[in-house]
Design goal:
Structural class: mainly alpha
Number of strands: 0
Strand content: under 5%
Distance between the termini: 33 Å
Oligomer: single chain
Radius of gyration: 12 Å
Shape: globular
Largest sheet: none
Order of helices and strands: HHHH
Length: 64
Amino acid sequence: SQIHGTPLHGYVIQRRLEYAARLLTKENHNVSEAAVLAGYTNLSHFSNAFKRKYGVLPKEYRKC
């Protein structure tokens, strides 16, 4: 946590969401696929976490 300025769990969540965002835009995966590949088993948890980080739902982010 001293290196990244955030607790380990927060860092892992951040990296998973960044990976999911990349899957949605550059790899053209749908939201469900991106969630599973990023390690989420609950789609609503994924959507909520994604919206907290990026300010939009994954589906909207994918369209942009």
